[in-house]
Amino acid sequence: MAEIITINPGEHKLMLLRNHDADMEINISEGASLKFFDLVNSVNPVVSEINLTFNFLGEGSVLTMRGRMMGKDSDSVRRNIVIRHSAPQCESDVYYKYVLDGEAQGRFDGRVIVPQDCQKTTSRLLNKNLCLSHDARMQTRPELEIYADDVQCSHGSSIGMLDQDAIFYMQQRGISFSEAKRLLVDAFINEIQMPRLCVK
Predict the structure, then answer these.
(1) Distance, C-alpha 181 to centroid of its chain
(2) Mean pLDDT on 13-41
(3) Would the N or C end of the chain have less CB density within 10 A of its end CB?
(4) Is the dihedral of CA 2, 153, 99, 14 positive or negative?
(5) pLDDT at 198
(6) What is the mean pLDDT of the chain?
(7) Would you say the pTM of this structure is higher than 0.90?
(8) Cα–Cα nearest to 164, from 132, 128, 127
(9) Which run of H or of E encompasses 101?
(10) How far apart are CA 3 and CA 130, in angstroms?
(11) Exposure pattern of 172-196 as b/e (b: 16+ CB <10 Å)?
């Protein structure tokens, strides 16, 4: 059973931490602005598999989502995100990053739905992923389902490993391999900024 939340008009923040294990359905009212933060830090073994559904109920609403997913060992981190632009002139901006090490498995499914009568919609859906070992596995599938013609929508994804040339360059300047790796991972993941309450 999904947890159902209604976001009233005004500016709001919602933080989803690693111990949250319930699916969520969030209804965004007309004129509401929601900043949604999703954080998984792999301190203890993690299985975090959550479905998130967002429904725009009225015009002029804004959703900003930022996700930082960290997995290692045998962790499993999955997000299935559905955004329904059920009202015109709304905006959604989704950006998730994963860092996976060991035999961790990650999955990102994102889908933005824009019906025919929901013109003037703006939407961005982006997922970037970094695998630190050859045994880590990441699957990513961002999708746009658009029936309106007056919209600005984009989506994209990437999966890669650390740049060995960058590590070599840093080692030539006296930086150890482990420190070079840490600096590159931090530079990658810290593009996703979390509120201070979340980053511990």
Answers:
(1) 23
(2) 89
(3) N
(4) negative
(5) 47
(6) 92
(7) yes
(8) 132
(9) none
(10) 30
(11) eeeeeeeebbeebbeebbeebebee
